[in-house]
Specification:
Two copies of one chain form a homodimer.
Chain A lengths: L18 E5 L3 H15 L4 E5 L12 H5 L13 H6 L2 E4 L3 E6 L4 E5 L6 E5 L2 E4 L3 E3 L21 E2 L4 H12 L4 E4 L3 H12 L4 E4 L12 H13 L4 E2 L4 E6 L5 E6 L4 E3 L2 E4 L3 E3 L2 H5 L8 E3 L11 E3 L4 E3 L21 H24 L16 E3 L6 E5 L14 E7 L4 E7 L5 E7 L2 H13 L8 H5 L8 H5 L5 E3 L4 E2 H9 L5 H8 L9 H14 L1
Protein name (chains A, B): FAD-dependent oxidoreductase
Pathway (chains A, B): Nitrogen metabolism; nitrate reduction (assimilation)
InterPro entries (chains A, B): BFD-like_2Fe2S-bd_dom, BFD-like_2Fe2S-bd_dom_sf, FAD/NAD-bd_sf, FAD/NAD-binding_dom, NasD-like
Chain lengths: 533, 533
């Protein structure tokens, strides 16, 4: 879907010499900085980046992997401070922004709660403050999100490196883990911990996990698959309190029905909330995030922008085809959409600068929302992908005239549900335990292509005699890395130009540098190229 | 399933010269007579057949076809009275048996209500009295089943030639038809009438048609397929009365909710009841039919037998693996099981005569119940086959440890449900709109073979590229004609021996002489043989 209108002519386009300040230094900010660092190096703009953590930007998406010992910090760096400094980027780590003074275009910054407050001027402000984990309302836990630093020992989310270290200590001694929340990240952490040898239980409030992404059958079959993978789910459960021992360490989660689920670690995974306090304090509009229009502008003067998890695209045009249905959608928690915003904003600034240099006006294709982002469970034991609207039944009429196709094999534990529009494009889908069908169906969904007249052909991709069929279908336009939006063709080009490892392909194309779920696919492409040469 | 015990040594085995009297001359009686006519011709036994109708035996299964103009009486004959007479068979048509005097082994027979009552002695009595249509409890209709002859004009079932003629008159002028009852026969009649150009509505009391054979999704999708074929179903409907015009002719069916469904014809299709009055009057045990044991004996002296729709196999052995589950099952209405009983009883008599001639004791393999008979909707517009137990869902555990596989394509209107036992043999199935899958699944069910590890391969048989796969699977053991139980191999043998038409194959093997649903398959085999030669 594209926004309702083309990018309007810039009112106050960026001019050479302006000072761009980026607040936040997570993966989305790092991507933006990466894309405009050359402008800073050339002296076209001044660029300052302010990070709250003392570590430079790392791939936050991999914090769960780090926690369960499947990734190391060394491989998670997203930015090289020395290189940035040499490019002329001002990098302020361990620094907090306490206020935005929009009238004077000045930030108040401090090196910590006790630090002195300094002023820092800006011409353009890019907010990439991300999100923070939600805290449950449980006896024994302070539900104020800002109390996150003061959780009892053994109670943590998986947001930053400190969290990862706390979890890893328990995982390494194979301690018992209770995961609160059956969303994607909670399930991935539970499966990884189980694979690492920990006894794990997931507690979920609704009748089935991934409640918003799955229908009841999909939820039931996923629940079975999780149990088979050593991750029993306690569904429809209301947690009441954390049971702590005398030194205030977690020792069990008490449910409303009186049961106690013992454990050494309570992993909180009940969603995230956009960090909007700064924007709120500056009088900017916020809803589930900092409200921006389709050009990512948070204010009418086009001086403040927001990208990534802290931003919510929500325009005021009642005829906009994109926004109404999105109202009330919070941060996605996925890196892909934020990366595309970072990329687009950098390109916008560059186009404005180019236009000023050429004495013209910038014209830039508007940022398009891709199809609804897919949920993919990244785990070795369970294969699940789903996206979009998945309600309805094959034997009931759909209000829009569309139809539903459903396959469920209770024996194999596999499930596929396709919700088709009248033109046979996909409104949504669920695919469990059928990895090749999932890839093909995801492709049809992302490209807005029609599902074959006989959808049964999709199931064959995982059949005993599928063989080369799936490879044949991979075209140069097939997206391999969904985080960075990298196609098969671009990866093949990089390999042809000399990239000989997954890491080298990542450097050349950014493929596999997000969630890492495509690493095996990239490795296959590299190996096939090597074999062909 | 086989009965619990082998056939016991005959207490009073049949001896040469005995008089066998068959009461009834429907398809099952005709089959029995056909199988023992040579014994009569050779003078080994005396054989008398008593038919209530004045017409000789005709294929009652085709009455619906006759009614809708798709069959003619000429092609429906099952017996040639002249040939039987020349074989020495006494054929008494238009004759009613009013009483069985078991102590004297004598029947009271009459040529009609006003006719004189004569006595007719027997040594062995074979009851093949069949069943009669159930009548609904509706204002305007006398519900006494014996009042069948006195239904209002335009209200009829489809049991005999008179019914067929009444229906055909309406069908030929494309009159509006209301079918009461959404069972197999009602739906087949409705589809045939619709195909012949009549506006048709089916009224069914339950939420979906074929209620006992289908689950809710299958029922809903079949309902849609019927509507698409011009046969709307009014489900969950309670009929209240028939609306008649001044000359007592049907003009509409009034429902409990006040709606009137207008029509020129009300076709009653709400099941049949075994004709057991004669047996009851003779002190024989009856339940849903004349109760017989696994040797088809209705009395302990082995003088009275029952076969076909009037018989209910229900032994007294509490450990019998066959009977308990069958308790309460009424007449099947299918010709296949009756034909197998007729065939077996004829073989039993022959074996007893042979044993007496050889001075020994007859030993005969007991009559085995095949797997649960499949329900196959014989219609051009809708393809449906189902059998066995079809409850349960893929995402819910089954008490027996089995599993369920389900495919539903709301767009194509196709549906498949396989209920698997722990060993992957079929407990039951539903297949709608997938004719080749239905054939293969029916085969797996009938043979007790395991469903493939990836049941998705079954769907491919109806896929766009299925081609020759299905033919390859047809083995010499594949049953082509389910009524007469004729395999592919026997048909091929008949064709090899010179049978060059469907009719000639029918004469040689009886294939296609039942419901006629396999005629296309037989024709294909004949043509393939011709092409190969």
């Amino acid at each position: 879907m594209t926004p309702h209108r083309p990018l309007r002519p810039a009112g106050t386009p960026m001019r050479p010499g302006e000072h761009v300040v980026v607040v936040g230094f997570g993966p989305v900010a790092a991507r933006f900085v990466d894309d405009v660092a050359d402008l800073a190096a050339a002296g076209t703009i001044r660029l300052t980046v302010i990070g709250g953590e003392t570590d430079p930007a790392y791939n936050r998406v991999l914090v769960g992997e780090l926690a369960t010992g499947r990734a190391e910090l060394a491989g998670m760096a997203l930015a090289d401070p020395g290189l940035l400094a040499r490019s002329g980027v001002d990098l302020l780590l361990g620094t907090e922004v306490t206020r935005i003074d929009r009238s004077r275009r000045v930030l108040h910054v401090t090196d910590g709660p006790a630090g002195e407050v300094r002023e820092l001027g800006y011409d353009r402000l890019v907010l990439a403050t991300g999100s923070r984990p939600n805290l449950p309302v449980l006896r024994g836990i302070n539900p104020d999100p800002r109390a996150y630093e003061h959780l009892p020992a053994g109670v943590t989310a998986l947001r930053d490196l400190r969290d990862a270290r706390a979890v890893r200590a328990v995982v390494e001694r194979r301690g018992r883990v209770v995961v609160l929340g059956g969303g994607v990240l909670g399930l991935e952490a539970a499966l990884a911990a189980s694979e690492a040898g920990c006894p794990v239980t997931v507690v979920h409030h609704a009748p089935w996990v991934l409640t918003r992404s799955l229908d009841a059958p999909g939820g039931a079959l996923l629940g079975r698959a999780l149990a088979d993978a050593g991750v029993p789910v306690v569904s429809g459960a209301q947690a009441r309190e954390v049971s702590l021992d005398e030194d205030r360490s977690f020792r069990g989660l008490v449910l409303e029905d009186g049961r106690t689920l013992p454990g050494e670690l309570l992993l909180l995974s009940i969603g995230v909330t956009a960090r909007t306090e700064l924007a709120e304090g500056a009088g900017l509009r916020t809803a589930r995030g900092i409200v921006v229009d389709h050009e990512l502008e948070a204010d009418v003067e086009q001086r403040v922008f927001a990208i990534g998890d802290c931003a919510e695209v929500l325009c005021k045009d009642p005829s906009c085809r994109v926004c109404p249905g999105r109202e009330g959608v919070g941060p996605s928690g996925l890196v892909g959409p934020g990366w595309r915003q970072a990329e687009w904003l950098a390109a916008r600034f560059r186009a404005e600068l180019d236009a000023v240099a050429a004495g013209g006006t910038a014209v830039l294709a508007p940022l398009t929302d891709g199809p609804a982002a897919a949920v993919r469970l990244k785990a070795h034991q369970v294969e699940l992908a789903c996206a979009g609207t998945v309600g309805g039944l094959p034997w009931e009429p759909r209000p829009d005239g569309g139809t539903v196709v459903q396959w469920a094999d209770g024996s194999a534990g596999s499930y596929a549900k396709l919700v088709l529009r009248p033109d046979r494009t996909l409104e949504g889908y669920i695919v469990l335990g059928l990895p090749r069908a999932a890839a093909e169906i995801g492709l049809l969904h992302d490209r807005g292509e029609a599902v074959p007249e006989d959808p049964g052909v999709l199931l064959r991709l995982d059949g005993p005699d599928a063989g080369a069929r799936q490879e044949a279908r991979m075209t140069p336009e097939s997206t391999v890395c969904h985080c960075a939006g990298v196609t098969m063709g671009r990866i093949a080009d990089a390999v042809g130009a000399g990239a000989a490892t997954v890491e080298e392909v990542g450097c050349a194309t950014r493929a596999s540098t997000g969630c890492g779920g495509c690493k095996d696919a990239v490795r296959r492409i590299v190996e096939e190229h090597a074999a062909a040469v």
